[in-house]
Design brief:
Layout (H helix, E strand, L loop, with lengths): L9 H11 L2 E6 L13 H17 L26 H17 L4 E6 L6 H15 L2 E5 L22 H10 L38 H11 L11 H23 L1
Parallel strand pairs: 1-2, 2-3
Helix pairs in contact: 2-5, 2-7, 3-4, 5-7
Length: 255
């Protein structure tokens, strides 16, 4: 079964909709710098590969990915594209509205861009539920992997760190240039921690600034974390764990 909506004809989509019980997945990510060793599309690719593997296991379709997110702090390096939150709210809402008119009523929006994307996604999802009468679930890999991350020996969530790098080594090794990776360990902050895998998580979020990112660029080419600890094997364990959790969410919606 080809799960990607854009690779099916309209009548094939009709069949997919009936088989899925009206459930569909929407991958959302970003196009932004991920150090010298990972591609700009890493966040979107993360959402896509989770969506695809879970969809194949559950028989549901996957909508075309949204390749853009809110990334103003990453504009310090070439290739980054950032959209205003108000634009992103409207884009996601319009995608959901369009699909709802064709009979899809339950949406799983996979966020590959971590906490930065969550605020505008929440606003869009709330409006879609209130206005369109649909069900929208936001699935964030960072929160759905908190059991496995410490077991793999990963450090705190950073940017293009060992979590993202291992994941990409497993699914897209040809796009990873580990020889270019630079370590830049995440610094501990007394108040600021948004890593659900660690007991010190405070849910206290301080948005990164251009000044902050310049420091990251100077230190390690835009990386925060320890990508040298990455491995394909760990990436597979991580991926399978998150996919299993995503499958559980989808199966609950299909009831």
């Amino acid at each position: 079964m080809n799960v990607w909506l854009q690779e099916n004809s309209w009548d094939e989509v009709e069949v997919l909709k009936e088989k899925s019980g009206g459930v569909i997945v929407i991958p959302v990510g970003s196009t932004e710098q991920h150090g010298s060793h990972l591609p700009l599309g890493t966040d979107t690719m993360v959402a896509m590969m989770l969506a695809e593997d879970a969809a194949k296991k559950t028989g549901i379709p996957v909508a075309p990915p949204l390749w853009f997110g809110w990334s103003p702090h990453h504009m310090v390096l070439p290739g980054t594209i950032t959209l205003r939150p108000e634009v992103l709210i409207e884009v996601l809402y319009d995608v959901i509205e369009s699909l709802s008119k064709h009979g899809f009523q339950k949406f799983v929006v996979i966020n590959g861009h971590r906490i930065v994307n969550i605020p505008w996604m929440q606003i869009s999802a709330e409006r879609a539920q209130r206005v369109l009468g649909v069900k929208v679930v936001l699935f964030d890999p960072a929160y759905m992997s908190k059991e496995i991350v410490p077991q793999l020996g990963y450090g705190p969530v950073g940017h293009s760190e060992e979590i993202e790098t291992s994941h990409m080594l497993y699914k897209h090794p040809h796009l990873v240039h580990l020889e270019k990776a630079q370590d830049n360990p995440v610094q501990k902050h007394e108040l600021y921690s948004v890593d659900p895998a660690y007991p010190g998580d405070t849910l206290c979020y301080v948005p990164s600034t251009i000044k902050d990112m310049h420091k990251s660029v100077d230190a390690a080419g835009g990386t925060t974390g320890i990508p040298s600890k990455s491995s394909k094997e760990k990436g597979q364990i991580y991926h399978d764990h998150v996919v299993d959790n995503l499958v559980k969410v989808i199966e609950r919606l299909k009831i």
